[in-house]
Amino acid sequence: MHHLLPLLVALPLLGAAVLVATGRHLPRIAAEITGFAVSGGTAALAVVLLLDSSPPMVEWVGGWLPVGGESVGILVVGDGPALGMATLVSLLTLAALAYSWRYFDQPPHGRTGTFTALMLVFQGGMCGFAIAGDLFNAFVFFELMSVTAYALTGYRIDEAKAVQGALTFGVVNSLGAYAMLMGIALLYARTGELAMTKIGRGLDSAAGQGGPDALVLASFVLVLTGLLVKAAAVPFHFWLPDAHAVAPTPVCMLLSGVMVELGAYGVWRVYGTVFAGPGGIPAADLTRALVTLGAVTAAVGAVMCWYQRHIKRLLAYSTVAHTGLFVIGLGILTPEGDDGVALYMLGHAGVKAALFACAGVLLDRFGSVDEHALHGRAGQLRATGVMFGIGALGLAGLPTFGTGLGKAITEEAVGGPLTVVFVAASAVTAGAVLRVTARVFLGLGPRPEDAEYETSGSDEEPETPGLLGRIPDTMTIVPAVLLAAALAVGSVPGFGELVARYVNETGSGGAHVSVHWTLHGAVLGVASTVLAAALAALAVTRPRWVAAPDWAAPLRRLQSGHVGDYVAWLLVGATVLGALALPGVLGG
Amino acid sequence: MNTAMHVLPYLVAVYVFLTGCYGLATSRNLIHAVGCLAVCQSATYVLLLAVGYRDGATAPVFSDIEPGSRPVVDPVVQALTLTDIVVGATVTALLLALVLQIAKRHGTVDPDELRELRG
Questions:
Q1: Which domains does chain B have, with CATH numbers?
Q2: Of A126, A456, A461, B43, whose CB count within 10 A is highest?
Q3: Domain segments of chain A as ranges
Q4: A560 and B114 in contact by Cβ < 8 A?
Q5: Position A585 pLDDT exceeds 90
Q6: Which of B87, B92, B106, B115 to substitute to test the interface with A, most A CBs within 10 Å?
Q7: A464 falls in which pLDDT band (50, 70, 90)?
Q8: Hey, of B37, B86, B98, B100, which one would you mutate to test binding to chain A, going by the most A CBs within 10 A of its CB?
Q9: If you average pLDDT over residues A359-379, what whole number do you get?
């Protein structure tokens, strides 16, 4: 069975190659069906492999097996979390392709299937990153998915904002990737290995009785910088709102739903296999670094989310806030935290992709994603409005959504004062989405006033051929299915236990964790939802009470749209990360 | 003297990386910025090759030397560097294409004048 692992990458890439080679002769419908078949086939393969992933599979690609314990081959690992991420990637790609059925303008002559081919390469890159077992190939797949994501973000090259957002995205993410490669080179210099587990063992034996030294700290900071740029942790997050606001809607579904989460997954994987030993970074230091960055990320994401009027940008900031929560949950390094985050990611992928899909309907129906300009105009889009509202409740963590279950378990694992961060971040982001629902779909409250320093979201070009008179069924069915899936993650009995079993087999040596709804978690989930509804009601009826206060203005000015500023913040972030992890190295 | 020569390539790599970052942060022209990103990437080439260097070793090509007859430098890092160059070429080409479109749509390549996405 393990011989099939590389197909998770090879299938989508082959499909893309076929589409590029024959695209000019294919009618559009054939190209799109090919895309479905390849993407769906990969998804089916990922599910089959996932069900067979206990005990975990290992495959040396091309039969380059280790000789005498040393290897130079490409290693792919098929364990629960890796194949779970690959499955999520593939299913979400399938959903995005279904959503974009006959979506874009007729592509220029001779370029049929370009978009589908790019989506398949994106899928292949993300699957490859999920199953990569050695650090260098993790870097290669990291870059493959990044480059495809830049191209997809700037797919509508006639749009001024789209190309600007794609360039910012490209520069910041590639710089992060190069930092990661520097870290990988240092690790190779110390251990002479590239496979993650072997680097981990090499660091331990090189350290001997002593602890980590400056080289280990430097490689840790460099590798985590790359991964945290992808995970959009503050202050590495600036590229994300710019890219998500301008990317085509089906691409946003993938970027927010799974690509950003892959960054957090990478942090979990790399720390657990490379730096967790006695020669790596002590657990207390990782917890300090990740919990601090995660809490700041959640706070900044939530505040910025609340003050957006550009609906896609608002959703992008809510992704920043939720990734902060994921980083906190992974940072505490307990099996319960890992399980909670895994479930939270699954639920969040469904909810966030559905919300982006609904925002896309607004864009293609009205040519605008501006909360102020759309005030009261979308009343006739009942199905979309209902789904937008339900998505907001899912974001708040209402039982029995998957987001709710994941959040409840993570909250319980984290415990203490950080519970406030979880409740507040999910309530504020959900409140912002509910506010949009109330204003845009229900037309409640007065029309809000314009602020000075913001991206409005008016005058956007629809992505479909002209403004839609009638919403195609695919654009309604896909978000409905995604929301149902997010609900199922939290409601189907036994699903949580199943996810926990897969995650813990790799993460914490098969620790048994009971994953189910508790009264405590359900009460906090309901509390977040009530708080979100109250915030939204306040915003709609008394806009002045919750308008941006003076202290929020500098925070908004940081998001300057200037790529140089973002690079400077990346360096600041790397320094902060080093400072947070320093005590353990000094103590060792 | 010898220690200094061994540390030098690593210092060069750090210096090149930070120079590229400085250029990116202060760039007034997006083409220049993409160039600076390529400079940052060159630091990874220097570092990788420095990691594989051995005193008195030759290139790891066994067509004309007997395996084991004399030391060779680490071929793994050279393979990594080649892959890295391919990745870098892709990124640079794509980003330059995006800069071209920015020049067409915005009429400028000065990042200070691109202020559409903010707040």
A1: 2-113 (1.10.287.3510)
A2: A126
A3: 1-133
A4: no
A5: no
A6: B87
A7: confident
A8: B98
A9: 91
What are the residues whose beta carbons fall under 8 Å from the beta carbon of B39, sequence distance 6 or more? B16, B19, B20, B23
Query: Of the ranges A283-287, A327-331, A454-458, which one carries the lowest mean pLDDT score?
Result: A454-458
Q: Reduced to 3 states, what is the DSSP secondary structure of residue A348?
A: helix
Which of A404-418, A451-465, A494-508 is predicted with the least confidence, judged by mean pLDDT? A451-465
Instruction: For residue B58, list its beta bridge partners.
Output: B72
Interchain proximity B119–A72, CB inside 8 Å: no
Closest-CA residue in chain B for A188? Answer: B51
| % of chain A beyond a pLDDT of 70 | 98
Q: Does residue A588 surpass a pLDDT of 60?
A: no
Tokens standing for residue A137: 């190939």
Tokens 């007729």 locate to A106
Taking contacts as CB-CB distances below 8 angstroms, the residues of chain A near B99 are 167
pLDDT of B22: 96
**Percentage of chain B exceeding pLDDT 70:** 99
- pLDDT for B1 beyond 70: no
Q: Do A182 and B119 touch (CB under 8 A)?
A: no
ipTM: 0.95
Could you write out the three-class secondary structure of chain B? CHHHHHHHHHHHHHHHHHHHHHHHHHCCCHHHHHHHHHHHHHHHHHHHHHHHCCCCCECCCCCCCCCCCCCECCHHHHHHHHHHHHHHHHHHHHHHHHHHHHHHHHCCCCHHHCCCCCC
Measured between beta carbons, the chain A residues lying within 8 angstroms of B89 are: none
pLDDT greater than 60 at residue A249: yes
| CA A20 to chain CA mean position, Å | 28
Q: Count Cβ neighbours within 10 Å for each residue of A388-424 and write b for 16 or more, e otherwise.
A: bbbbbbbbbbbbebbbbbbbbbbbbbbeeebeebbbb
Residue of A nearest to B86 (CA): A140
CB A245 within 8 A of CB B117: yes
Q: Determine the Cα–Cα distance for residues A545 and A298; give it in Å rounded to an integer.
A: 23
Q: Does B42 touch chain A (CB under 8 A)?
A: no
Q: Which residues in chain B have Cβ-Cβ distances shorter than 8 Å to A147?
A: 87, 90-91, 94
B98/A559 CB distance under 8 A: no
Place of tokens 């895994």: A342
Q: What is the pTM of this model?
A: 0.95
Confidence of residue A107 (pLDDT cuts 50, 70, 90): low
**Bridge pairing between strands A75-78 and A57-60:** antiparallel
In A, which residues are within 8 Å of B17 by CB distance?
A: 178, 182
- Residues 6 or more apart whose CB falls under 8 angstroms from that of A390 comprise A483
Interface with A, mutate which of B49, B82, B101 (most A CBs under 10 A): B101
